[in-house]
Design goal:
Elements (H helix, E strand, L loop, with lengths): L2 H9 L1 H12 L4 E4 L6 E4 L3 H14 L12
Helix pairs in contact: 1-2
């Protein structure tokens, strides 16, 4: 849990919108990063990750993403 999340979400509605969108698109968890600089979606299925990326890019052209695989 990030203590900044509730406080920043009340000032920047985009944060809560992204957290909700990640959840809607299949993320197991979606949170604000510890420093408050990004919203993170955690997916267990690559296809859900790819589908969410496409959906987000339709509405947010400046969206930056990368994925990490843990072996």
């Amino acid at each position: 849990f990030n203590g900044f999340q509730n406080r920043l979400s009340s000032h920047y509605s985009f944060i809560e919108k992204m957290i909700e969108l990640f959840s809607k698109l299949g993320a197991l968890q979606s949170i604000l990063s510890g420093s408050g600089s990004s919203v993170i979606g955690i997916f267990d299925k690559k296809q859900d990750l790819f589908n969410s990326r496409e959906e987000i890019l339709k509405n947010y052209s400046d969206f930056f993403d990368f994925n990490v695989t843990i072996l």
